[in-house]
Recover the amino acids of this structure.
């Protein structure tokens, strides 16, 4: 049997818009979304949020469809969020985690997804520690692949729910100053948000220590327009949205930080620092938080925090994507 | 056997300073005469090869290829690798020793020679390990290995990490007159990395190795060659700064030679973005094929594809002679080694069968002239082998056995890995149209590849 290394085929084609000539099959990142397509997803998510507010938050739009949560990394909120979203639309959900699956017996990712396909998956939601893994999956499978976080690369549904939450709060995204703070180098949330926010017209500032935001990492040609600022005080000047990222303890062990104490001193988002932001500024966090490290507890749970709303909105956004990927259309 | 008249071709023989139309008469496998075009009259028993409009050069010499035998015969064998080489115009290939077991004893050197004799179609010169088992600890028996016919010493696939071991290899290597070949990589800066460090890696979220990870050991190796008087040959240079270091070292008279690979001259890390990378030129001398997606593991190679500024510096190094040699670093892999996540995929490109076509993109883009290109594939590596004591034909000498290639510099063809003779189908060039192809390869006076039927 002649097996090809990779079956070629565009993974980054199409759109979810109702008049699209080619229907989007996969959601792997936001870099291939148009602003219009993102707005359409957010509008659809608003409809889904209405459904979630009903006494019985269930519709039958995806009855008979199967979603497989294929998680090669630990996750609580993302996995549960996809599960709730699929169930709210009437789909069946199967959860597969790498631990306790044939993965521990050495099965390759390609073989695993081919198995899922043979079992009849319509949606494969994949979380994987290796950047780009969802692209490999998408090249080998007929089902829709949704990236639920790959390595340091992308987390498009998180970015969409962040956009939804910002738009819900401010009524717009365009013209807002959004500051993402912390471990940018290892952050898939930051990378996807940079695409989504800039496409919708926000002004994005990345801020963190140079070891976690190396000057070699970004360039004007290959990245959307953004600013890099190493001083958090200056970065926060007039900011509407402040998004601290989780600081993993391993970063210090890997020598990327002298100490967590110094990190806190320089980069913790706290009330004193927020005084330099816009008077209406809000704080968001992709979770899970290290309270007292990248974010102070009072800010995390204070009146400016949208963190809980983010989690709720995540279900609506994922419902919207599942609905649109399966061919659904929303008017108006 | 071995009676040919090759008529009317443009003969490019850089070592002899030849570049003009000439006829070649080969009798009994040896060059009988170089004659003015149209004057060589074949007698009975001679095959006439019409080379009008074509280029005739000495056979190409590849100082750096992985033939995978023994131990990794599912990736390549000496039989398939040498046939792939012949298709690529190569009549001599130096085989890297990172096999299983590694080539670190005279018996194993002899084994490679024996397999090449039994199954190969061109000349194979084994390279032996610098350290036993390529473990980076103790030196191999360099003199005995040289005596068994090892062309040089290398732990390629991995660097010689330890500066002390490198120093001793260069010093002790003086007894052999053969080069120590280093894969220049600073482990602390390259650990876990699979791509060039820069905005492409930044965007894709892949761990990058900076150019400095190559430049630092290049500088170290030059300093150690200067200290010891030993001969260091730097494998597959990929970074601008490396070229500058070698240029300065050669000016000082340090005994350093250097090679570069076709893919590092012609392609950039924007290929990792897939076809979308075309929106961010320059991507190299070839547009990224539409079928290439992001994170295609066939773009994964060590050292990694870097930037256009690196390509231009390497090309300048080839032009001014800082770079002596173009070598393929042919690294065939089984499809399973590449059908996985980018970070876990094997490094390497199957390069023997595309080398000339890819290099011709530099000529067609007016970045390099054909004579210099041929020089780095023939006289450059040939003189290095000569200096190491190997008599390998790299120029047309009357009376000597002939290694020769007939090239069509203008024919276009599409790279189809499934048609490769190499077992390694791993190339990012699948579907790319190249202009320039090897039509005929003669090794030791015999035709070992005849692709004239492939001409469209």
């Amino acid at each position: 049997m002649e097996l090809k290394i990779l079956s070629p085929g565009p993974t980054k084609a199409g759109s979810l818009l109702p008049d699209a000539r080619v229907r989007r099959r996969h959601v792997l990142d936001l870099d291939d979304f148009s602003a219009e397509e993102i707005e359409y997803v957010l509008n659809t998510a608003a409809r889904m949020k209405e459904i979630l507010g009903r006494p019985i938050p269930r519709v039958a739009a995806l009855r008979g469809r199967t979603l497989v949560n294929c998680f090669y990394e630990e996750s609580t909120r993302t996995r549960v969020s996809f599960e709730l979203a699929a169930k709210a639309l009437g789909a069946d959900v199967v959860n597969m985690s790498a631990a306790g699956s044939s993965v521990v017996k050495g099965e390759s990712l390609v073989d695993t997804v081919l198995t899922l396909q043979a079992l009849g998956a319509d949606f494969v939601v994949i979380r994987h520690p290796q950047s780009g893994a969802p692209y490999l999956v998408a090249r080998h499978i007929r089902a829709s692949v949704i990236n639920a976080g790959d390595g340091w690369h992308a987390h498009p549904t998180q970015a969409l729910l962040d956009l939804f939450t910002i738009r819900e709060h401010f009524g717009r995204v365009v013209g807002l100053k959004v500051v993402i703070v912390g471990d940018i180098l290892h952050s898939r949330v930051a990378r996807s948000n940079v695409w989504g926010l800039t496409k919708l017209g926000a002004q994005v500032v990345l801020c963190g220590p140079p070891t976690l935001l190396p000057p070699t990492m970004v360039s004007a040609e290959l990245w959307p327009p953004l600013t890099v600022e190493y001083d958090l005080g200056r970065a926060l000047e007039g900011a509407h949205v402040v998004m601290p990222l989780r600081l993993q303890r391993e970063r210090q062990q890997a020598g990327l930080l002298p100490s967590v104490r110094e990190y806190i001193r320089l980069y913790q988002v706290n009330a004193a620092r927020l005084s330099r932001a816009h008077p209406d500024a809000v704080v968001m966090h992709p979770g899970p938080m290290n309270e007292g490290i990248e974010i102070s507890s009072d800010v995390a749970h204070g009146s400016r925090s949208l963190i809980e709303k983010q989690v709720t909105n995540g279900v609506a956004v994922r419902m919207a994507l599942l609905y649109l990927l399966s061919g659904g259309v929303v008017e108006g | 056997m071995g009676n040919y008249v090759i008529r009317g071709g443009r003969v490019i023989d850089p070592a002899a300073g030849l570049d003009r139309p000439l006829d070649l008469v080969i009798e009994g496998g040896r060059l009988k005469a170089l004659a003015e075009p149209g004057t060589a009259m074949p007698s009975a028993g001679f095959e006439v090869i019409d080379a009008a409009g074509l280029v005739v050069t000495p056979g190409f010499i590849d100082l750096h290829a992985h033939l995978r035998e023994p131990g990794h015969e599912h990736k390549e064998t000496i039989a398939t690798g040498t046939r792939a080489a012949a298709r690529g115009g190569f009549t001599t290939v130096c085989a890297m020793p990172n096999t299983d077991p590694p080539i670190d004893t005279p018996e194993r050197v002899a084994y490679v020679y024996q397999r090449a004799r039994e199954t190969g179609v061109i000349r194979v010169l084994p390279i032996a390990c610098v350290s036993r088992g390529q473990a980076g600890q103790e030196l191999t028996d360099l003199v005995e290995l040289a005596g068994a016919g090892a062309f040089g010493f290398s732990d390629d696939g991995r660097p010689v990490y330890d500066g002390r071991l490198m120093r001793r290899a260069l010093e002790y290597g003086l007894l052999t007159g053969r080069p120590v070949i280093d894969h220049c990589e600073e482990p602390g800066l390259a650990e876990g990395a699979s791509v060039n460090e820069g905005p492409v890696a930044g965007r894709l979220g892949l761990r990058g190795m900076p150019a400095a990870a190559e430049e630092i050991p290049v500088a170290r190796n030059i300093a150690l060659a200067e200290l010891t008087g030993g001969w260091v040959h730097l494998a597959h240079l990929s970074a601008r700064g490396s070229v500058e270091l070698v240029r300065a070292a050669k000016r000082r008279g340090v005994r350093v030679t250097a090679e570069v690979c076709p893919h590092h001259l012609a392609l950039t890390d924007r290929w990792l973005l897939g076809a979308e990378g075309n929106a961010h030129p320059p991507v190299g001398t070839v547009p990224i094929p539409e079928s290439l997606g992001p994170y295609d593991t066939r773009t994964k190679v060590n050292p990694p594809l870097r930037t256009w500024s690196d390509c231009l510096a390497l090309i300048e190094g080839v032009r001014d002679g800082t770079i002596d040699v173009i070598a393929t670093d042919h690294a065939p892999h089984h499809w399973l080694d590449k059908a996985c996540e980018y970070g876990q995929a094997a490094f390497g490109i199957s390069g023997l069968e595309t080398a000339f076509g890819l290099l011709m993109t530099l000529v067609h883009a007016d970045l390099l002239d054909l004579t210099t290109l041929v020089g780095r594939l023939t006289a450059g590596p040939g003189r290095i082998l000569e200096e190491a004591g190997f008599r390998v034909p790299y120029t047309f000498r009357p009376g000597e056995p002939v290694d020769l290639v007939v090239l069509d510099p203008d024919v276009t063809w599409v790279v189809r890995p499934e048609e490769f003779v190499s077992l390694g189908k791993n190339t990012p060039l699948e579907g790319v149209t190249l202009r320039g192809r090897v039509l005929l390869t003669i090794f030791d006076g015999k035709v070992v590849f005849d692709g004239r039927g492939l001409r469209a």
Q: What stands out?
A: The interface with chain B takes residues 2-6, 8-12, 32, 108-110, 128, 130-133, 135-136, 139, 150-154, 185, 188, 191, 214, 216-219, 221-223 of chain A (CB under 8 Å). The beta strands of chain A are 66-71, 92-97, 123-128, 144-150, 177-181, 203-207, 227-229, 241-244, 282-283. Chain A is about 35% helix and 15% strand. Residues 28 and 147 of chain A are 5 Å apart (CA to CA).
